[in-house]
Amino acid sequence: MLLQTLKNSQITDNEISELMISQEKVAHVQSNNPLDHALLVLIKSGYTSIPVLDKEYKVQGQVGKAQILDSILGMERIEMERLHEYFVSDVMTTKVPRMKKDETFGKALMLSINHPFVCIEDNEGAFLGIMTRRSILALIHRHLEKI
Ligand code: AMP
């Protein structure tokens, strides 16, 4: 019953600000960045995968360590020297879970089944931040605790 209500409700502005990692705190790269820069950002931030944004801060896709390493995998070794030959656009995926700020919590929950994070956009498509599976589960847990 509570979960049904939660599923159909919009995430309140309060919850959004609580759940969302805002844009300025999200590690990201741009599609024209060379792969060595992207790998550096991924390693330094410690994340498996991060959003790819364009110059106007709109979401273009996501890129992860696995895709980058796969692109420089030779027959016998990882050819690190090839990292600067490629750009993020060569390996990124444009398939990225995204939703508008005013969509329902059910959508965030559904997207988080298959994705560790969901990109949140405003109505013009500008990137506002990400919601992680961890924060979505934490919100459900908090509501369940209240029962
Ligand atoms: P977490 O639930 O904290 O493990 O985060 C899940 C995934 O969300 C991570 O593996 C990253 O892909 C992404 N993520 C979380 N926090 C950030 C951040 N500050 N910047 C970029 N990506 C993030």
Topology of this structure?
Elements: H1 2-8, H2 13-19, E1 20-22, E2 29-30, H3 35-45, E3 49-53, E4 59-64, H4 65-71, H5 88-91, E5 98-100, H6 105-114, E6 117-121, E7 127-132, H7 133-145
Parallel strand pairs: 2-3, 5-6
Antiparallel strand pairs: 1-7, 3-4, 6-7
This protein binds adenosine monophosphate (AMP).
Adenosine monophosphate binds near residues 26 and 47.
Report on this structure.
InterPro entries: CBS_CbpB, CBS_dom, CBS_dom_sf, Diverse_CBS-Domain. This is CBS domain-containing protein. Pfam families: CBS. It comes from Salibacterium salarium. With 147 residues, the protein is of the alpha/beta class. Helix content is 40%, strand content 20%. The chain contains 7 helices and 7 strands; from the N terminus they run ααββαββααβαββα. The strands form 2 sheets. The protein has a 4-stranded mixed sheet. A 3-stranded mixed sheet has the order 2-3-4. Bound molecules: adenosine monophosphate (AMP). Adenosine monophosphate binds next to strand 3, strand 7 and helix 7.
